[in-house]
Design a protein that fits this description.
Layout: E1 2-7, E2 14-18, E3 42-45, H1 47-50, H2 58-71, E4 80-82, E5 88-91, E6 97-99, H3 109-117, E7 121-127, H4 143-153, E8 157-161, H5 169-185, E9 191-194, H6 202-208, E10 211-213, H7 221-231, E11 243-245, H8 262-274, E12 279-281, H9 290-296, H10 299-305, E13 314-317, E14 332-338, E15 344-350, E16 356-360, H11 362-366, E17 377-382, E18 387-391, E19 399-403
Parallel strand pairs: 2-15, 3-4, 3-12, 4-7, 7-8, 8-9, 9-10, 10-11
Antiparallel strand pairs: 1-2, 1-15, 1-17, 5-6, 13-14, 14-15, 16-19, 17-18
Helix pairs in contact: 4-5, 8-9, 8-10
Amino acid sequence: VLFVKETGRMKQKEVVLFVCLCIIATKLTSALDNGLGRTPAMGYNTWYDLGCSPQMEEKYIYGVMDAYETLGLAKFGYQYVNLDDCWAGGRYDNGTIYADTVKFPNGLVPLIDHAHSLGLKFGVYSDRGVLTCAGRPGAGGHEAEDAATWAQWGVDFLKEDSCNATQDHETAFSEYGLMRDSLNKTGRQIFFALCGWEPWYAPVGSSLGNEWRIGPDDSNWPSIIDDINIDADLSMYSGPGGFNNPCLLLGNDVNNNPLITSQQSRTQFSMWSILAAPLLLSQNIRNMSSFLLETYTNMEVIDVDQDPLGKQGTRIVGGALNLTSTDLYNTTNVWARPLHDGNWAMLFVNVGPTDQQITCDSDCFAAIGYTTPTTTNLVARDLWLHENVWQSGSGPLSYTATVPSDGG
C-alpha cells in the first residue's frame, strides 16, 4: 500500500501506495439515520472461525473477549464481538427468542454485560426468513419482538441473513425495512447489517441499513476475488452511514486450518481498506500468528479504511481480476481511494502465478488528478514498510512496484 503526497512549498499531499490494493469512489449517499456506521464496522465474527461447531459456545466467546484484551485490539478500533448463526435455541410459547441452552446455558446477557465492561460491543445474528441458514429461529414474522428482546439484552449489532426467504427484490427490501423500523423503535442504537449476498441491494442499501453484503460468502481466495470484482462497480452507493460489504476477513479457523495464505489475508486487508469495507475478523484470534497480528494492527492501513471522507476506492489500471487468466490486464491492478485530507491511497495487486512489476504511469496518475508536468512534488509511502519509497522528479510521473504472485 502506498500513500502519495505532495511536498514542497504547497500543501503536503501523499499518495498512499498499498503494494496490494487501492480503490476510488465517486459519490456519497444518504444513509439510514440511526447515527451509526459513519465509518466501516470493525470487530470479530464467529462464522469462519467456528461455524456451527461444538466450539461455538459461551466459554469460547469469553476467550475471544480475553484475546481482545491480551492483543489490545480495541485500541486499534476493533469493537464488535459478533455471534453468527447457531446461537439461537428456540422460542418460548409467547414468541420470545432464547439462546441455545447447551451452548449458552446462562443466556447471552452475561456475555453482553462482560463485553460492555471491557468497552466492547456485542452483536447477534438472525434471518429475515422464519429459519436461519442453519435452521435456527429466524426473525420472519417476529421482527418487533426480536428487536425489543435484543435491545433489552443490550445488543449493539444485528446481522440479518436471507436464507429461507424470497429473493423477490421488493419483498426483500420490505422485509429488511420491517427490521430497520423495529430496531429504530426500540430507542437503542443497534448497527444493522443486511446479508443478502447480491449487488442489487447496493442502490437501496443506505435506506435500509448500515452495511449490506454485495456478493457470495468469501470462504476462499477465488470467492474473495469474485467479491472484489462485484464491489468494483458499486462505489457510488457507499459512504458514511452505510457501506458495501464484500464479506469477512479470512485467516485460520478454530483448529488453525488456514482458509487462505497469510499473504492473501494481508492483501485482502489492504483491499478492504481501499474499498471502505467492514473489517470483521472471522478467524481464530485466540491463536493468531505474529504475521496476521501485524497485518490487522497496521494503524496506517486501518486509518485508510476508517478515513472519515468515507469514499470507496475504484480500479484505475487493469480489468476484472481472474485467477486463471494469462493476461496481465486481468491479473494485475492498481486501485486508488481519495482521503479526507486531499491525499490518496493506492493499491498494487497481483493475483497471477509469478511476481510482476506493476506501473502507475502518467495516465494512471492523471486518473487521480495529477498530470505531467505537475506543479508539485509527489512522495509515496509504503504503508507496510512504514517508509517513503518514491518521490516524483521533473519528468513524466511514473512509479513501479514489484508485487509478489498469488495475492501479493
